[in-house]
UniProtKB/TrEMBL annotation, chain A:
Disordered: region residues: 83-108
Transmembrane feature ranges: none
Name of the protein in its database record: UPF0229 protein I9W95_11480
PANTHER family: UPF0229 PROTEIN YEAH
Organism in which the protein naturally occurs: Thalassolituus marinus
InterPro entries with a match to the protein in the record: UPF0229 (IPR006698)
Family: Belongs to the UPF0229 family.
UniProtKB/TrEMBL annotation, chain B:
Protein name: SpoVR family protein
Organism: Thalassolituus marinus
Start and end residues of each SpoVR protein-like N-terminal domain: 18-436
Domain SpoVR-like C-terminal: 440-491
InterPro entries in alphabetical order: Spore_V_R, SpoVR-like_C, SpoVR_N, Ycgb-like
Organism lineage: Bacteria, Pseudomonadati, Pseudomonadota, Gammaproteobacteria, Oceanospirillales
């Protein structure tokens, strides 16, 4: 006796829980792998999953087995030329060889257990524990903006929303429905009249009666309205609160002669991270690239990262330009403004206090967050000193940090946007 | 093909390659009819159609339909998923569970001939093996396993809720490391029953704890008694090889729920114990029967030539044995060895040669079906090979045996498939399937009850084979469960050659 059961519709993700437990257990390894991947990937390349490799040693489940060695007898199939008593040299490598006996499935533990995590998981690991400061300021609950969205058709509305096509289609259908009986009758009467072969001045009684009836019906048909109130349909529009989902990110970078391509690359990675992080939080993000030496210039991404410039450094020029652009294009009620400034710390001595002043008076009140990273293996310079004062004044809007090598980027990024800071800000 | 059957007029059950539920029923009915002719006695079948994804899930939980949650199953799943998506492996056509009713999974992707193959293989081959083989009859209880697994899953979940996921995971990790040392080899365990387990759970917790308290009582009961026991109290009185059982009953510091977790791992391990010892026989038996049953279907004129072509092509893949020097050689294929041995037994019964009469006087010329059933019921891999592997088959497989002594730099070919080598070869192959040779011999010999409560295990070396380096990790797990020092002494014969301890891995 057999029962046949269709289980295909049962859940297929029975292993989900176990998979998550595995990921949780190897969180540390996965995070390391993700960090490594971020350092290697390019800016356009963040939106995909990642292959994670964990040394087999770590995921190995130990059990008691025999190790290699000892005196073993093993039976193999497929003998071609051996005779009893033949002696065969063991492979050079010693223990590792020896055919595929019991010992062979215990490698040196150097190979890797690898698997894929999805794009979402990748980014989640990347942004784990992070939250942007002051995000709460413009979150959904305080949203002042609405947008209208289509929501089908309704029978009441304002003329500007009238849907002509829909209304006429309704009218047409109604007319057909209301006149179908009368038209059938008219057809019959006409046929009867034709059968009598009437003359224009025919005075036969049947003809006159038929003509009267036809006239009557035609009159009635004409009274069916072409368009009635019933037919009208209006496009429905509903207002939905719109999250303040727009952010603008200012990338400000020193491109003076002292900035080498290496330093720029480090800066670039920092911007990538910031961009991706914003992308996760906002629907729409605009990027503004401002580079400067002694004067500032708004450029595109390519030029920003890869064109070469020489000359001195006046940081305030870039900050002034940023201020102008905000005033012109990015109203801070509407936009969440983030800025990241990268520099090697060089600045004209006289300019540094001016920068601090600009930031504290003009920029910081308007922006969500301003991060300054100084990429230099050396001692801090004038700019750093001037900015230090701002830290106290705007602890929740301003952060600064020093990056020495590419490997520092991620820790610094995390530090800048650490959760604690966020909580303080709330 | 069974040539005793005349090819009859043909009324095909189906001609296309697509299956439907009606067709599955028809095929199952026909196969059952034929299986009865061959006296295959089975549990009722529960055939479940599943998708490839579900098959991957089933894979990752050692084939069980229900399992408690554990990260290692997640690891298994990731591995399976990766290999499958990269096309490195196909999924098995079926998974069959030793339960009553016997649950078999069929993948929806399979064509009709494949489904028929799987039904014959799993639902009548494996199923009758589960019901008939003495190991399964002795050690497992097909009727209650599903209930028990459900009980285990719920119990583990409750523990996680009460004591935290990590606490539970720690205990399970430790138990998994020792699971091969959690089986009774000589005593038939009581049948497991979920209902009883639940009912006795509380009772057992109390009693267990009392017994342990008694063992670890530190106050002497009375001066008289104490003086009697002054002579060293030996505990355990006999060496214990079921390490998990010993821990469950005697570990001093475990809470009742932790003991219950040990018990769960132990019971499940016990359930798989027969499967580990009958791989060649079990697969061979099932393969022999899918081959015989489907050929019978063909001889009855019920399936088309195309059906047979597809069936034979996958059948020959299953029973292919590459030579030791092939790049894809992966040990002796249990399907190939088992299938050919059962076929060979049939041949010896039906058309014995002089050699066969010489080697197998008892079965040469006997009724083949009786003999086959006898072999299936009363042996495990080791004894099956020792008893039934014929010289003819050794020649066909071109078997040879290598002696590998780690103190010499050359292998020695000690026996090949010739008159001088047959017996030695057969013995060596049989030993290869002997669990007591395959797994290290480790027993608990002593507990220092009145001193530091340390636990001493004795590893008796076989063929001078050392333990793998994993043993350090396993000892840590053991230490977690026992709670006090662990010593592992390795003996070569009667000579102590190595002593390792945990914690403090001084090697002396």
């Amino acid at each position: 006796m057999s029962y046949i059961i269709d289980r295909r519709l049962n859940g297929k993700n029975k292993s989900t829980v176990n998979r998550q437990r595995f990921l949780r257990r190897y969180q540390k390894h996965i995070k390391e792998a993700v960090t490594g991947a971020v350092n290697k990937r390019s800016i356009t390349d963040m939106e995909r999953g990642e292959q994670i490799s964990i040394p087999t040693r770590s995921t190995h489940e130990p059990i008691i087995t025999h190790g290699p060695g000892g005196k073993q007898h093993r039976v193999f199939p497929g003998n071609k030329e051996f005779q009893a008593g033949d002696l065969l040299d063991k492979p050079e490598s010693g223990g590792g060889g020896g055919g595929s006996g019991k010992a062979s499935n215990q490698g040196d533990g150097e190979d890797e257990f690898s698997f894929y995590i999805s794009k979402e998981e990748f980014l989640n690991y990347l942004f784990d524990d992070l939250a942007l400061p002051n995000m709460i300021k413009k979150n959904l609950s305080q949203s002042k903006e609405f947008k209208t969205r289509r929501a089908g058709f309704v029978s009441e509305g304002t003329p500007n929303n009238l849907s002509v096509v829909k209304s006429l289609r309704n009218a047409h259908a109604r007319r057909i429905g209301m006149t179908v009986g009368k038209r059938r009758k008219l057809k019959e009467l006409n046929a009867a009249l034709t059968a009598l072969d009437p003359q224009p001045e025919d005075s036969r009684e049947e003809v006159i009666s038929l003509r009267l009836q036809i006239e009557e019906i035609e009159k009635k048909l004409k009274t069916v309205p072409f368009l009635d109130d019933l037919d009208l349909r209006y496009r429905s529009q509903v207002k939905v609160p719109m999250p303040s989902s727009k952010a603008v990110m200012f990338c400000v970078m020193d491109v003076s002669g002292s900035m080498t391509q290496d330093i720029k690359d480090i800066a670039k990675r920092f911007y990538i991270l910031l961009y991706l992080f914003l992308q996760k939080s906002y629907e729409h993000i605009e990027l503004v690239f401002i580079r400067h030496h002694t004067s500032a210039k708004e450029v595109d991404e390519q030029e920003f990262f890869y064109s070469r410039e020489t000359g001195g450094t006046i940081v305030s020029s870039a900050l002034k330009m940023m201020q102008d652009i905000i005033a012109e294009r990015y109203n801070s009620d509407e936009w969440n403004i983030y800025a990241a400034q990268a520099s090697d710390g060089d600045n004209w001595d006289d300019d540094s206090p001016q920068c601090a002043e600009l930031l504290s008076q003009q920029l910081l009140p308007q922006v969500q967050y301003f991060a300054y990273i100084e990429i230099t293996p050396n001692q801090h310079q004038a700019l750093w000193e001037s900015y230090t004062g701002l830290l106290k004044q705007y602890p929740h809007h301003f952060a600064m940090s020093q990056i020495r090598t590419a490997a520092d980027i991620y820790p610094v990024f995390r530090e800048l946007f650490a959760k604690e800071r966020y909580q303080e800000a709330v | 093909m069974t040539d005793t059957h005349q090819v009859q007029e043909r009324h095909y059950l189906s001609t296309g390659s697509d299956w439907t539920f009606e067709l599955l029923e028809t095929y199952d009915r026909e196969i059952a009819r034929i299986a009865a002719l061959y006296k295959l006695d089975t549990y009722p079948n529960q055939i479940e159609i599943i998708t490839a994804e579900q098959m991957m899930d089933a894979y990752s939980s050692v084939g069980m339909p229900i399992g408690y949650n554990h990260w290692s199953y997640g690891k298994q799943f990731l591995q399976t998923q990766k290999n499958y998506q990269r096309g490195q492996m196909g999924l098995a056509y079926e998974i069959v569970i030793n339960s009553n009713p016997c649950i078999a999974y069929l993948m929806e992707e399979n064509s009709m001939p494949m489904q028929a193959l799987v039904i014959a293989h799993a639902c009548y081959g494996h199923n009758s093996f589960f019901k008939g083989n003495y190991l399964f009859r002795t050690w497992t209880d097909a009727g209650s396993i599903i209930d028990y697994l459900l009980f285990a899953k719920n119990y583990v979940r409750q523990c996680e809720e009460r004591y935290g996921q990590e606490e539970v995971e720690q205990i399970l990790d430790a138990c998994h490391a020792l699971q091969n040392f959690g089986v009774d080899r000589y005593r038939r365990p009581k049948p497991i029953s979920a209902a009883e387990e639940r009912a006795r759970l509380e009772e057992r917790e109390n009693i267990l704890q009392q017994q342990i308290n008694d063992l670890w009582r530190t106050l002497p009961a009375s001066p008289k008694e104490a003086s009697q026991k002054k002579g060293r109290r030996k505990f355990p009185e006999e060496p214990q090889e079921n390490i998990l059982y010993f821990l469950e009953k005697n570990a001093p510091l475990l809470a009742p729920w932790q003991r219950e977790l040990i018990r769960i791992v132990r019971k499940i391990s016990q359930y798989f114990y027969p499967q580990r010892q009958t791989q060649v026989m079990n697969e061979g038996w099932a393969t022999f029967w899918h081959y015989t049953l489907l050929n019978h279907l063909y001889d009855d004129g019920l399936v088309t030539d195309g059906f047979m072509m597809e069936f034979l092509s996958s059948h020959s893949n299953v029973v292919f044995q590459p030579g030791y020097d092939a790049s894809y050689y992966n040990g002796i294929n249990p399907y190939a060895l088992g299938f050919n041995m059962f076929r060979d037994i049939k041949r010896i019964c039906e058309e014995p040669t002089d050699e066969d009469r010489d080697w197998f006087p008892d079965i040469a010329g006997s009724d083949w079906l009786e003999t086959l059933h006898f072999a299936m019921r009363n042996f495990k891999d080791e004894s099956f090979i020792q008893q039934f592997l014929s010289p003819k088959l050794m020649r066909e497989f071109h078997l040879f045996s290598i002696y590998d002594d780690d103190e010499k730099n050359q292998y020695e070919v000690e026996a090949i498939h010739n008159e001088a080598g047959y017996r030695r070869l057969r013995e060596m192959l049989a030993r290869q399937y002997d669990l007591s040779v395959r797994e290290p011999n480790i027993q608990i010999t002593h507990v220092e009850i009145e001193d530091d409560r340390s636990l001493t295990l004795r590893h008796t070396m076989q063929n001078d084979t050392p333990l793998s380096s994993d043993v350090h990790e396993v000892m840590k797990h053991l230490h977690l469960l026992w709670g006090f020092d662990i010593h592992l002494e390795t003996f070569k014969g009667e000579r102590l050659i190595k002593r390792q301890s945990c914690p403090d891995t001084r090697v002396s």
